[in-house]
Amino acid sequence: MITVTYQVAASGQPQPNPRHRVLRAVPKVSLHCHLLGSVRAQTVVELAGKHDISLDGRSAENLYDHASYEDLGEFLRVLDVVGSVVRDLDDLHRITYESLIDAADHQVLYREIQISPPGHGGVPYRRLLDGITAGMRDARTDAGIDSRIVVGLNREQSVAAADALLDDIIEQRIDEVVGIGLDYAEALGPPEPFAPVFQRAASAGLQRTAHSETGPPRHIEILLDELGCSRIDHGYHVVDNDRITRRCAEEGVPFICTPVSSDIGRYSGSGDGSHRRIAQMVNAGLAIAIDSDDPPMFGTDPTRDLIALSDALGYGLEQFERFTHTAVDATWLDDTDRAALRQHVERQFTALKEIP
Ligand SMILES: [Zn+2]
Q: How many Å lie between the centroid of ligand 1 and the Cα of residue 14?
C-alpha cells in the first residue's frame, strides 16, 4: 500500500510532494495494463445498476479490496464481477475511454491495452473490438493518448479455446490489434501447451507476450523459444537462474514489471514494499519497463508505481527515463510510429529537466 504524502502550503491548501509531482510528469509508455483491471469502481457500480446486476452489497468504496488479493483467486473473482457488468457498445466505449483518460492524466503517451475476451462473459469478440476502438479514438482526440490492443488468451481455459479465440482474432483482423498475450493464473496454465497457438499467431503476423509471475525461470525460456514472445509480463523469477538472467540481459528481452500489484500479490518479493526482485532485475542489467497492471483494483496509478520504486529503491529521473525508453523500444508500433513516439518522449523529458 503506497501512501502519497502531502505538504501543506502557506495558503493552507495541500500541495503534492515535489518529487511526486515530477514523477507524475515523467512521460510514460504503458505495455502492461488490463482493460478490465482498469475500470473505475464507480463505473462498475453504475453499469451494474444500468443492467440490473447485483454486486452482492458491494459499493464503489469496498469493491476493490486489494488487501485480499494475496490470493490470486480472489482478485480474479472480482475481475469476473467487473467483466459481468460490461455488456454493450456504450459500456465498452466508456471503460476504454475512462481508462485511457485516467492514464493520460499521469502522462501516459501511449498504451498497448491488454484485453481478455474470455473475461467479458460471452460478449462477442467483434462487439468488444467495436466498443473498445471507439473509446480509443475518442481518448486520442480528447487527451492525445494513442493506443493499440493486445488480446489475451486465458491460460486457465483449454488450448482449444485459445485456438478458437485466435481464429476470431485472425478472421476479424483490424490494424489496432497488434499482438496476443497469455493471462490468468500461470500455476493453472503452464505455457508449453500453448506453443502451437502462439506459433500460428506468429505466422499470422501477430506479436507475442505472456505473463510469468509465479512460474520458474524455465518458463521464461519456453516463452522465448517455444512461444516466440518478444517481451515478458512480470518475469520476476528469471533472477533465480543466473544463466537465463544473463541470456535475457544479452538479448535485451524486455520485462514489463508492475511494482504495486506485484508487491500486493507477493510476486516480486515478500510483499513488504521492498521490490526486491525488481531491484535484482535492474542490477542484473535486464531491460525493464514499468506499468500498473490493474491500477484501481490495486489502489495504484501510473505515478504511484514510480513513487513505490523511488521510495523503496531510491530511483530518480535518470532511471525512470531508462524505463520509459525501454518501453518505447518494446512497443509493437511500426518503425515510423515508434520513432515518432521516441521523439515525443525525448521532448517531454527535455522539458521536464528544464523545470527548476
Ligand atoms: Zn497483468
A: 33
Confidence of residue 3 (pLDDT cuts 50, 70, 90): very low
352 CA to middle of ligand 1, Å?
29
The DSSP annotation for 37-74 comes to GG--HHHHHHHHHHTT---TT--TTTS--GGGGGSHHH
Cα-to-centroid distance, 119 and ligand 1 (Å): 13
- pLDDT over 60 at 8, yes or no: no
How would residue 5 be classed by pLDDT, with cut points 50, 70 and 90? very low
pLDDT for 220-259, tens place per residue?
999 999 999 999 999 999 999 999 999 999 999 999 999 9
- Burial class from Cβ neighbours inside 10 Å (0-12, 13-18, 19+) for residue 54 reads exposed
Q: How far is the CA of 353 from the centre of ligand 1 (A)?
A: 31
- Residues with a beta carbon under 5 angstroms from ion ligand 1: 293
Q: How is residue 53 written as a grid cell?
A: 446486476
Find the 295 Cα to ligand 1 centroid distance in Å: 10
In the chain the domains, ranked by start, together with CATH numbers, are: 25-353 (3.20.20.140)
Which residue carries 473473482 as its cell? 77
The alpha carbon of 168 and the centre of ligand 1 are apart by a number of angstroms equal to 22
Whole-prediction pTM: 0.94
